[in-house]
Amino acid sequence: MASIWVFHGPNLNLLGLREPEHYGSRTLAEINQELLRIANEAELNVECRQTNHEGVLLDWIQALTPADFLILNPGAWTHTSYAIRDAISAVKVPTIEVHLSNIHAREAFRANSLIAPVSIGQISGLGAEGYGLAMRYAIAYQGKREKV
Ligand code: DQA
Q: Total domain count for the chain?
């Protein structure tokens, strides 16, 4: 069973084609491959998933436990979904919120994240590298818990 989960929300399947000036040129498959490489090196299991359906993401989050770790790019649901916020809070899964673009430097509606208050932290604006940094944090976090 994976202990680190990477969930990508709506429209992130279009990475590589979608507004590269905001989201860069790497595809989701390339990003996921790099995350798998980093996690495998650390001998931790990771599973990456993407959905365009909010209810599907809710079901995935509800299936997690506090022993898991979640790296989440909620896409536009960041700004709209009280349901995703509540699911993370209910399950108590440690979560890092990742955005490719700097959501604080774009349209005003993007600056508000409903997910940030229930996350350990937010990485925003570092492009695809942000996922790698989140993964390194997740590995350290899971490693520390194993020792306790
Ligand atoms: C995004 C930022 C969101 O505002 C946007 O709706 C996305 C992508 C990012 O990764 O920069 O879909 O989460």
A: 1
Residue 102 phi, psi dihedral angles, 5° rounding = -85, 100
The whole-chain average pLDDT of the chain stands at 95
> What pTM was computed for the model?
0.96
- Provide CB contacts within 8 A for 55, sequence distance 6+: none
- Best mutation site among 99, 109, 122 for ligand 1, i.e. most ligand atoms within 8 A of its Cβ? 99
Range(s) of the domain holding residue 138? 3-147
- Percentage of the chain modeled with pLDDT above 90: 93
Q: For residue 31, what is the domain's CATH number?
A: 3.40.50.9100
Q: Whose CA is nearest to atom 10 of ligand 1?
A: 99
Please check the confidence at residue 2 and state whether its pLDDT lies above 60: no
